[in-house]
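Hey, I was hoping to borrow your eyes for a little while. For a while now I've been wondering how a particular protein folds. The fold is given in discrete form, as structure tokens running alongside the sequence. Could you read through the record and tell me how the tokens relate to the sequence? Take your time with it, there's no hurry, and the full record follows here:
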Amino acid sequence: MDRARQALPGNRYYAPGEERAEKVHSLFARIAQRYDRINDLMSWGMHRRWKRRLVALAAPRDGEKALDLCCGTGDVARALASWPGGRRCEVTGLDFTEEMLELARRLTPAALPVRFIQGDALQLPFDEGSFEIVTCAYGLRNLADLGRGFNEAFRVLKPGGCFASLEFGRPENAFLRGLYIVYLRAVLPVFGRLFFRDPDTYGYIFASVTRFPGQRELAARMREAGFDSVEVHDLMGGAMGICLARKIGPSRTTER
């Protein structure tokens, strides 16, 4: 992956620093209407299974409050609110792209205890210790400041609460890693060309993944941010990874 970073082509939706948020916002506003369909196609429907695994590890329970960061069209938020054993879990989905939130609200049954708000994951509009669970599926890569994102997630968690992240990973097996890079670099831009006549829309994934920590480095960054008991769960040979971490304090099992 280091070699891939050095050979990384330009992408007009990727920029470091202060320009990052504006470019990411323009990308997701453009692809919102076809976002779920293309996710199904490019992952062969597997992203839904991976998100269910994320929610299972977060293990929402009755009466808890959960925050889904970078919630997109709300699939993880809905899963948290309807998970067996956590049917009265109150869920807030936060995203800074209103076009995504419009879809999330439309797709969410009124009976589910889910609300969606527009906001910035780097400046969360919640008090310290507001949630037992914070999740983020495919959103950390898009933050302009990963460390600040961790700090905000840590701040709004209650002691003993869990932070669960699902992201593109980095396979340790050299053969799998080679296939993975080829797929990201050569195949994914085809979806952008077919659906938007713009390969950069899905070429952005390769541009962002190759600049983003793998799941084990991500876990180390979580520990540096103050999280405890950090676990890494590899999916598809490490092509995807879930990091599960806790804020130091009494466990949720002990509290309840």
In short: The two ends are 43 Å apart (CA to CA). Confidence is low (pLDDT under 50) at residues 1-6.
